[in-house]
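Title: [Solved] Transcriptional regulator 3D structure

Original question kept below for reference.
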Amino acid sequence: MAVLRAARLVIVWLFATFSLVMAPTALAAEKSEDDPGYWLERLEPALTRTSYMGVFVYARGDQVSSMQVAHRYRNGMVEERLVMQDGQIGEIVRRGMDVVCVLPRHGRMELNAAIPSGPFAEAFTNQLVPVDRWYQPEIIGDDRIAGHDVVRLALNARDSLRYSHQLWLERSTGLPLKGKVLSDSGETLEYFHFTSLTISDSLPDEEFMVQSEGREVSRTLAPQSSATPDQSMEGWTLGWRPDGFQPAAAPRSGSGKAVAFSDGLASFSVFVDTATGVGMPSGTSRIGATTVYMRKLEKGDEGFLVTVVGEIPLETALKVAESVEIEDSAVLGAVLP
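Solution (posted by the thread starter after getting help):
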């Protein structure tokens, strides 16, 4: 089970760069390094276009995983390879939209069923989200991470509907080398931290080749859909979402429909599916910064399960879930519970 959890964290990293959109980097050149906006505008190009390899640790609650990553941008395409460092070996290799996952002795793993969570997962939408409208950015000092000089940037939530963040950005590239998600009381809910890192434009080709033996699962990821949330909410509606959360690429889950939203740093998804048995779960759980809230919903004699999952406080997830209404159970393919 630990290996499978780690594998899902690896997939999270892939979704982080898969869902990015190019921001206008020319604006960064017009600002001073003392301006937090300078670093915010460098963040997306740094994540996509910086070539690097290293090892990072990712912690959510009591789950801690370490992973080796190699990433490069060549000929207009992102290439990436991630290898789990704990437990049995497993790896994921990505070239553009093509992804190969190898998990020895664990059989098939559905890449399109991964729920986005973790640092920067699904955080960038098909719109340019004004992050500083929902977070107060502040440079809070300098530091060193994995032998690299970094700028420490705080992004303090302007309301209680989202968490605050801190980022440690490598000075020459803007690449995040460490990140924390913080509660309103300042508690660290989850973090990632590079322990070793090499930034280079001449990484060897073999670093981006599958090297593990085992069953391979291949997928070609679809480009982010331009569909609106209303088009995705077939048979149901969402009456409320926090200000600033815009439509983002949504994962798929079983036979149900999912709609995802992001404010530029955090994201959450709403799943609506048929409740097929009396033992369907409901209630709340939290791992690190990721909240999962499940609510049973009935319309006539038909039962449904609403799930909200994402890097948002419990109160926000609960309010989102309570705003879901079933309009047409036939469209959802509801069955008697």
